[in-house]
């Protein structure tokens, strides 16, 4: 970029930060990263006027590419999660952006996830730096609460409901992974850990959808909350087993490396450890069968009454007991 272009880009970023401040975004979301996300959502390159703002569908990687290509600011690939959790999540909460408006039931961790500026925010931003701005901003704030509720409804309708073992209800983010977790709780658990206790259930949208830390501690286990937990943990009181379950819809079966990681993570357990990989169907199992570790179990949701045992020494039980 030449000096003139660089100056125009810097000015536009400062203006976008002014917009975010006027919209009362927290200080953490008034930085250059968030300003560039806003500009990307509007398709506003430095030479365009605010009134030329548009509403393209933009994923996280395209937003990062937009920043590099049009503003000369490049972010490392490993900052994708920062973009998602520290900027776009707050944009959605503030009624500035829509999440997957083209397909609200798209899984949270889908590489096809997209964002789009809301019609109300677009209309407001188009009059930035005009005499209509102050009045339009007041109207936007009056709409704010209703906007966030309005745009949350389509996604809320696609949440996956789960009936926990104790009779309580839980809702997970939409997607095939959550459907498999639902099957683990409602189909696997009653068959292979009847009368058991659900200790942990992960979610692609939230780090811990359900986590009974006190119960886990009662079994002699205190885990690092930043450690890589299995997708589900069940306690079988009859056999005094702890079932560590990985739910696989695309990648990540209980391979030898994962088996060793979980063995170390739960080494202090007073209960025997049982390692299980759950698949939605046999077609998905077939893609990963070569990587499944020995001394583990496999469960397929579309054939819930059967287990596949990877080794002949013991059937559904802990090793080394």
Mean pLDDT: 85
The named CATH superfamily of the largest domain: BsuBI/PstI restriction endonuclease, N-terminal domain
Radius of gyration: 24 Å
Count of distinct strands: 11
What structural class is derived from the secondary structure elements?
alpha+beta
Low-confidence stretches: none
At the first level of CATH, the class of the largest domain is: Mainly Alpha
β content, as a range?
15-25%
Strand order of the largest sheet: 6-5-7-8-9-10-11
Shape: elongated
| Gap from first CA to last CA | 66 Å
Q: Strand-and-helix sequence, N→C?
A: HHHHEEHHEEHEEHEEHEHEE
Count of alpha and pi helical runs? 10
Helix content: 40-55%
Summarize the main sheet: 7 strands, mixed
The fold-level CATH name of the largest domain is: Arc Repressor Mutant, subunit A
Determine the oligomeric state from the structure. Answer: single chain
**What is the CATH architecture term of the largest domain?**
Orthogonal Bundle
Q: How many independent structural domains?
A: 2
Question: What do these coordinates show?
Answer:
This protein has 321 residues and is α+β, with helices and mostly antiparallel strands. The chain folds into two domains: 3-157, BsuBI/PstI restriction endonuclease, N-terminal domain (Arc Repressor Mutant, subunit A, Orthogonal Bundle); 160-310, Trna Endonuclease, Chain: A, domain 1 (3-Layer(aba) Sandwich). Helix content is 40%, strand content 16%. It contains ten helices and eleven strands. The chain has helices spanning 3-22, 32-42, 60-71, 80-93, 119-125, 133-157, 176-192, 213-218, 256-265, 282-288; strands at residues 97-99, 115-117, 160-163, 169-172, 197-201, 210-211, 232-236, 241-247, 272-279, 296-300, 307-310. Strands 6-5-7-8-9-10-11 form a seven-stranded mixed β-sheet, sandwiched between helices. It has a two-stranded antiparallel sheet with strand order 1-2. A two-stranded antiparallel ribbon has the order 3-4. α1 crosses α2 (32-42), α2 crosses α3 (60-71) and α5 runs antiparallel to α6 (133-157). The longest helix has 25 residues, at 133-157. It is elongated, with a radius of gyration of 24 Å. It starts with a helix and ends in an 11-residue tail after the last strand. The mean pLDDT is 85.
């Amino acid at each position: 970029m030449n000096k003139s272009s660089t100056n125009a880009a810097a000015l536009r970023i400062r203006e976008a930060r002014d917009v975010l401040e006027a919209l009362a975004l927290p200080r953490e979301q008034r930085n250059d990263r968030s300003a560039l996300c806003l500009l990307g959502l509007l398709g506003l390159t430095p030479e365009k006027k605010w009134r030329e703002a548009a509403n393209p569908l933009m994923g996280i990687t395209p937003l990062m590419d937009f920043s590099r290509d049009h503003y000369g600011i490049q972010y490392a690939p490993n900052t994708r999660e920062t973009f998602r959790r520290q900027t776009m999540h707050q944009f959605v909460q503030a009624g500035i952006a829509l999440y997957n408006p083209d397909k609200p039931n798209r899984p949270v961790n889908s590489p096809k996830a997209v964002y789009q500026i809301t019609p109300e925010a677009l209309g407001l931003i188009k009059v930035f730096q005009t005499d209509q701005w102050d009045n339009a901003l007041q109207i936007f704030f009056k709409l704010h609460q209703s906007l966030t509720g309005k745009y949350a409804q389509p996604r809320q309708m696609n949440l996956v409901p789960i009936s926990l073992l104790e009779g309580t209800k839980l809702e997970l983010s939409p997607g095939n992974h959550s459907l498999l977790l639902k099957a683990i709780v409602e189909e696997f658990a009653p068959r292979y850990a009847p009368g058991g206790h659900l200790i942990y259930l992960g979610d692609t949208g939230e780090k811990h959808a359900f986590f009974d830390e006190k119960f886990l501690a009662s079994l002699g286990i205190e885990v690092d909350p930043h450690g890589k937990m299995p997708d589900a943990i069940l306690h079988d009181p009859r056999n005094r087993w702890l079932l560590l379950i990985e739910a696989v819809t695309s990648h990540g079966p209980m391979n030898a490396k994962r088996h060793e990681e979980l063995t170390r993570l739960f080494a202090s357990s007073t209960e025997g450890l049982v390692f299980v990989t759950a698949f939605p169907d046999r077609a998905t199992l077939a893609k990963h069968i070569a990587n499944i570790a020995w001394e583990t179990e496999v469960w397929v949701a579309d054939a819930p009454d059967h287990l596949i045992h990877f080794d002949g020494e013991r059937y559904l039980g802990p090793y080394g007991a």
